Amino acid sequence: MKKGTQVRLRLALVAAATLLLPAGSLAQGGEAWFAYRLGGIHVGHARETVSVRPDGAIATTAHTEFLIRRGDDLAAMSVSEEWIETADGAPVAYHASRVLSGESRELRVTIDGDTLLVATDAGGEAAERAVPVDGQLLFPRAVDALHAARGLVAGDAYAFSYFDTDFERVGRAEVLVVGEDAVAVMGEERGLVKLVVRSDLLAGIETIEWRDRRGRLWRSEVPAAGLTQERADPEQAVVGGAPGDLAARLAVPSNVRLDAPWAVDWAVYELWTEDGEGALFVPEDGRQTLEGVTEQGVLLRVVRAAPDAAAPGGRDTGGGATAAYLESNALLQTGYPPLAAAAARAAQAAGDDPWRKATAIEAFVHEHIENKGFGTAFGSAAEVLSNRSGDCSEHAVLMAAMTRAVGVPSKLVAGLAYADGVFAYHMWVEVWAGGGWYALDPTLAAGNVDATHIKLAESAAEGGVTADISVGILRALSRLRLRVVDWGTGG
Predict the structure, then answer these.
(1) DSSP letter at 296?
(2) What is the pTM of this model?
């Protein structure tokens, strides 16, 4: 399989970093450093400072950098954030700037009573909206204070609301205090309190935190993803040199070798989690269905699918293909004139048939992206059209935007695809045609998707946000295992 077949992990990493809420852990001012590891590989660090402003408000700033190696390529991303809250813990404002690839996404949040005013500016698209708050909304320092005030007593359970910067909406975190635990952090064993944190935005994922009696965070883990955040000295947090190959580390081994995966029309897989804990979240659709339960997991049948040639053409937006799947936003800039023109040219010979339009655009995207490497960090459709570089994520983003530009609803899909003895994380596209959703993979441009593609998550990318894909991948990232039970062609 060509370079660019593994799904890009930077949004999953950013989502996971947000899941470790709050990143902060200082109550009265100062500085803290944290190291991030995914699958045992050092992938980034964060520097956090806390200061008191002249008006008495508390400002928490954090700068997080990730550097990810996949194969021979390095991809970098950074996130700068600032939370402002009053001395008594009331949230005031939040600002974040994320740099992925060559583009930045600005996010500003202000509080107006029980409503958040959220403004975004990215990819040439600016938007504003009001987000209602239900419950006690806390920023980082107030979260620390809440834990300390509760006393961190084993068995205690409580909840609070927080602003999730990946979903760009308010979530509710539920906390269960497990009790005292001895943890080695920064070269010594420390007596900390272990907590389990769950969010309603992150179904199936839990975070384990270790905090001191002042509520300060020292270590967090997302077991499902194999992601850890740990307080460290600056020289330990910022590790020099290139990190290990993350794509190779996270690929799922196959029990069989498939010499021609593109020819596999159907396959049956046994899926399970390595630790045996937590539910498997495997979506069912026209391509894949759950067929039973095994001693260690589930059986999943995946088939190749394409719309019936006799199905009516035209812009069929019924059957669940809502306006969200035609939206133009900061990631999928369908209204960007060069993109709209390129889409119209690519689909010109297809007439009104949505499937023919989609397959023509699939072929165009495959040929248009010349530099099929891992060095681009989740570029927007307009950026990819211009620089003609990227891996599977950039192929999928550009295709999804172009199909929308010619009236064909689309969604982004992430999961696993077979390549050279392993199932690697990958991204592709589904389009609405012939009365249903059908998959296409512009990285391969085969005109359909073979049965070695296993979907784990999907997203309409509303507002340019794909956190729902990140959550689906995080559930599986370091835990999912599979066995190919049977496969074949035809039938």
Answers:
(1) S
(2) 0.85
